[in-house]
Write a structure and sequence with these properties.
The structure holds 2 protein chains of 2 kinds. By secondary structure, chain A is an alpha+beta fold. Chain A contains 5 helices and 13 strands. In chain A, helix 4 packs across helix 5. Helix content of chain B is 69%, strand content 0%. Classes of the chains: A alpha+beta, B mainly alpha.
């Protein structure tokens, strides 16, 4: 079980494609068969969060968000809350999305991403140029894995630590082959004292040197491999060998 | 017959809430608020969800982590552990802590919340007492 499971991290997976400007109405039409399944009884279980000329963002009640733009397709998961009336008291917040391990959510996000991507309109020879796998974690620093704590301490060393109201973002190259280069954008933010809860986001990206043809048979395999490598890198971050100045590794 | 329109009770006589419009603000006195304080909802949700997930670790995985910790500790005691393995040991310990937290953390949090609530209430009572003393002296 990954550390992301233990801290209830939430995933985002995205694809960067060749540009293709399809009108939003055309995008909605293409996604219509998927939307027809997002109904419970006589209740629609999704909302259109944004609708622009060439992009659309859909949010399901179960917490999945779909974003389709001229050069990107992204599926993410975010917990959904709603205010529930209470007899004789103030309303309480209720979680309507289901708590699941990160790795399960990641599988589901990837499944949905493939489902959406193969439906969106575009030329036959449209190319896939980048895959992104993101983990977002809301966590008290004292509950964070040792490697993440080491990274944060490492960054804050000149000032004797990083206090509330701080944030940093570092993009680093993390690997390459003849076919692709990998990088990860590491983002940390700790708001002012009222919240005192940090947000840690690792945005792992694989950029292909030559674009891959977008095909329903090859896309799952590309995503599977990217996922494995991203998870491996996230585990490496949690162990923290990269930020260990005293180590020989 | 015309019924009288509902009129909310005026709050300027007595109000236990610490809001700016409450009676307390007229006199400059803040009333104690037992159990008050901002709840970091997202943080609480993430923590609960994390515990649910950590609690679902299989016995086999738990045993594997215990075995790995023991093997790394043996190396440490022998003085043969390298830096990378020490980092791994810290990570395995952290993983085991999360599993333990999933088992017992909720009960400990409830005790901690109760203690913090009483401590906060005691502080507010002391403050209230000082304010009352000040108000009495001014008369």
């Amino acid at each position: 079980m990954s550390w992301c499971d233990k801290l209830a991290s939430v995933p985002t997976v995205g694809l960067t494609l060749d540009w293709h400007f399809a009108p939003a109405a055309e995008l909605i039409t293409a996604l219509s068969p998927l939307l027809n399944e997002l109904v419970e009884g006589d209740k629609q279980k999704f909302q259109v969060s944004r609708l622009d000329a060439f992009s659309v963002i859909l949010q399901t009640d179960s917490g999945f968000q779909y974003a389709v733009e001229p050069s990107k397709v992204v599926v993410s998961f975010q917990h959904r809350m709603r205010a529930k009336a209470v007899s004789g008291g103030a309303p309480i917040m209720e979680m309507i999305s289901q708590a699941q391990p990160f790795t399960n959510l990641l599988t589901e996000v990837i499944r949905r991403l493939v489902e959406v991507t193969i439906r969106i309109p575009g030329p036959r020879n449209r190319k896939l140029t980048r895959v992104g796998v993101v983990t977002t974690t809301t966590v008290d620093i004292e509950d964070s894995p040792p490697g993440v704590v080491r990274l944060i301490n490492y960054m804050g060393r000149p000032w004797g630590g990083i206090g509330p109201g701080s944030s940093f973002q570092i993009a680093g190259d993390v690997g390459s082959t003849t076919g692709w280069t990998d990088r990860c954008i590491h983002t940390y933010a700790l708001p002012e004292p009222q919240d005192q809860i940090a947000s840690v986001m690792f945005d792992w990206q694989r950029t292909f040197k030559a674009g891959h043809a977008l095909h329903k048979d090859t896309l799952p395999e590309i995503l599977k491999r990217s996922r494995e490598d991203a998870e491996k890198y996230f585990e490496d971050l949690a162990e923290g060998n990269r930020f260990d100045e005293n180590g020989s590794v | 017959m015309k019924t009288a329109a509902y009129k909310p009770v005026e709050q300027d006589e007595f109000d236990l809430s610490p809001s700016e419009t409450s009676a307390g603000s007229h006199t400059g006195i803040k009333f104690p608020d037992f159990g008050g304080g901002d709840a970091a909802l997202i943080a609480v949700t993430a923590k609960l969800a994390g515990r649910i997930n950590a609690a679902s670790v299989s016995d086999q995985e738990h045993k594997e982590l215990l075995r790995e910790r023991q093997a790394l500790l043996d190396k440490k005691l022998d003085g043969t552990i390298n830096r990378q393995e020490e980092n791994r040991l810290a990570y395995v310990r952290w993983s085991l802590d999360r599993i333990e937290d999933a088992k017992y953390g909720h009960s400990l949090d409830k005790i901690d919340d109760a203690v913090q609530m009483y401590q906060r209430f005691v502080d507010q009572l002391h403050d209230f007492h000082h304010q009352l003393e000040g108000a009495t002296k001014r008369r």
